[in-house]
Amino acid sequence: MLKILHTGDLHLDSPLSSLDFNAAEKARDSHRQVFSKMMQYAIQEDVDVILIAGDLFDSKYVSAATKELVIKLFRDFAKPIVIAPGNHDPYSLVPLYKSGALPENVRVFSTEELSRFDFDELELSVYGYAFVTSSLEHSPLAEYNMALGKNPIRLLCAHAELGAPLSKYAPVTVSDIERFGFSYAALGHVHNPPEIKSGGTPISYCGFLFGRSFDELGEGGAYLVTLDGDKTKSKRVVFSEQSFIREELDVSGAADESELSQKISDFIIEKGYGENISLRLTLVGTVDITLTVNEKALEKNRGELALLEIKDRTLPVPDSDYLMRDTSIKGEIYRTLLPKLESEDTDERRLAAKALSVALLALDGHNVSSVLELDENELEGDE
Hints:
Layout: E1 2-7, H1 21-44, E2 49-52, H2 64-77, E3 81-83, H3 95-98, E4 106-108, E5 115-119, E6 124-128, E7 153-159, H4 174-178, E8 184-188, E9 203-205, E10 221-228, E11 231-238, E12 243-250, H5 257-271, E13 277-284, E14 286-288, H6 295-299, E15 307-312, E16 315-317, H7 320-325, H8 329-341, H9 346-363, H10 369-372, H11 376-380
């Protein structure tokens, strides 16, 4: 029986530019702690080999604290560790990979050509390649025609993008992988991966170890994979206590900002979200046209959450019957915008409603500056 820990996409030393200096450093230290927790788990579970499928580091700049910790934890593990550098930490740009400072039990792929490391004592060969720059526009597996090694257990450790033939990040296909008869293919690069269907070879993305933004949703972890004869079992092990979550809250009928705040507080309490949760809450529904939603003010209503982001996607609704009959400029504006207000396109409806809100508020002498503050997500679509 062989035990494998499949990880990757750790992005240690991420800049976290959205945070201030102290908060970013605290987060980076938290990430190192999660990494330490995972490595200790590997020792406790008597894992035979660790596969790191790229992006161990976020860039070529590795802090002294991170470098020292990585070397120590790798040495403490003592058993084989295989690293396949990814597009964020390409082999040629990360000095640590070439410095000779890594312990002898660590093997790092160094070229774009598919190669292997043999561990005869485990009857194991690990195949892989390295990004040597920030992109790799071909599939190293498709070009490999050498004879396979003698060891019966063959694993793949690679940073790749499946199902994207024009990708700049190693556009590998399922058929590329399956022709080798790997016992398991450990991939990195896609942080929130779908389940991968294959005819024979078990193929998995490791996902992220710890969330750093709302692009990495849910719990961070790694896979513990067990090979026992022809049987392959894997389970996801959660190591990160912090989670990023996106939710929607319908605030239809809210009369004022105080009522909005109460709805948000009640929602957070109902969900049971606490200090380990960073929440992006999108407000939807219809509200009175005179209600100004102040996102920044509402974000102060976060309770025990680690972070609260509010996105206003409500639709300001006037009294449509009155406006349809109105003979003033207000009615004329409403009737002009009506086709867009009734559009099947959600974004078109929302922008038309925003335009109507601005016009009506301005005609009534209200300050429209807060209504005009369209964020980049409104103009370009969510990330």
